[in-house]
């Protein structure tokens, strides 16, 4: 009886530790994915701002003429 009880406790702790580690790994993966998405959107915002500034530069005749010399 005592051996069955100890075996039950051991199996229970084993499953708890497996599920706890799986939960932590999933949470770490979600955090990493969110960081990658934020980095991509940051890069995209910077590229759009640069393209807009360049378009503004080329649409301004004074700046465009000044760039020739």
Q: Can you give a write-up of this model?
A:
The protein is an all-alpha fold and 69 residues long. It has a domain at 42-69. The chain is built from 2 helices and no strands. It has helices at residues 2-59, 61-66. The mean pLDDT is 80. Residues 1-22 form the signal peptide.
Span between N and C termini? 95 Å
* Helical proportion, percent range: over 70%
| Largest sheet report | none
Q: Helix/strand-derived class?
A: mainly alpha
Tell me the overall shape: rod-shaped
Strand content: under 5%
Figure out the total of helices. Answer: 2
Strand tally: 0
As a whole number of angstroms, the C-alpha radius of gyration is 29 Å
Order of helices and strands, N to C? HH
Poorly predicted runs: none
Q: What is the averaged pLDDT score? A: 80
Signal peptide: 1-22
Keywords: Signal
Brief digest:
The protein is mostly helical and 69 residues long. The protein is 93% helix and 0% strand. It has a domain at 42-69.
List the keywords.
signal, mainly alpha, 93% helix, 69 residues, single chain
What is the secondary structure topology, with strand pairs?
Layout: H1 2-59, H2 61-66
């Amino acid at each position: 009886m005592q051996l069955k009880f100890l075996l039950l406790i051991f199996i229970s702790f084993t499953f708890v530790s497996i599920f706890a580690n799986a939960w932590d790994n999933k949470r770490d993966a979600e955090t990493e994915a969110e960081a990658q998405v934020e980095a991509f959107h940051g890069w995209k915002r910077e590229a759009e701002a640069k393209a807009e500034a360049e378009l503004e530069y080329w649409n301004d005749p004074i700046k465009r003429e000044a760039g020739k010399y």
